[in-house]
Amino acid sequence: MHMSYEHDIDTFLDGPRAVLREQIVRDSSIEEDDGVFTAETPPDRIADALFRFGQALTKIYDLTFLSRERIASTFYEDLRTLLFEIIDEEEVETDHIPIDVPNASNYPVDYRIEGREGSSVFIYGVPNPDKARLTTIMLSHFLLHGLSFESVIVFQNQQEIPRLDVARLTNVAGTAVASLESDSDLRRKIEKLAA
């Protein structure tokens, strides 16, 4: 209740903060039921349980201090994990530099996998408007120089990206997934494009 006075509680129920909150609850051996935290313990272990319970609540409260950069890094970790569940890690190239375009080192691709008929599939994580704009520039550069590829855009939360940025990006991108929570859609789209 105290946290709800100063923070939007919904940010703890969805997205990266929710994942971290659930991990803290699991690791601390406490239970959560509709925002109420409890810990069961025998009477002779109450001091230990109270200490663990206090530590868990402190860690959960500390989630309010997570910066946008830390949340974005959690997004990239989650994307990487999900991607490696869909495609074998050995088949995924991270930070790919497409050599068939001018100034290639300025246009790294988050992930590249082999597509059907030898084409490339570029996968980009887009956690914020800046990355949406940067990805638009990169894909436009590839198209301008005739690079043959397919692309998959994975948003952290598409609704948080300004509509104009989403429109520009979707004009040059092959396909997109609105968030990592749409993991079955991401799986379907990547399996359709992958060799």
The CATH top-level class label of the largest domain: Alpha Beta
Domain tally: 2
Number-wise, the strands total 7
Describe the strand arrangement of the main beta sheet, using strand numbers.
3-4-5-6-7
Structural class computed from helices and strand pairing: alpha/beta
Helix-strand string: HHEEHHEEEHEHEH
- CATH fold name of the largest domain, please? Trna Endonuclease, Chain: A, domain 1
Please name the CATH architecture of the largest domain.
3-Layer(aba) Sandwich
Q: How far from one another are the termini? A: 51 Å
The helical percent reads 40-55%
The residue ranges in which pLDDT falls below 50 over 5 or more consecutive positions are 1-8
Strand fraction band?
15-25%
Average pLDDT number: 84
Number of helices: 7
The largest sheet, given as strand count, sense and whether it forms a barrel, is: 5 strands, mixed
Gross morphology? elongated
Radius of gyration: 21 Å
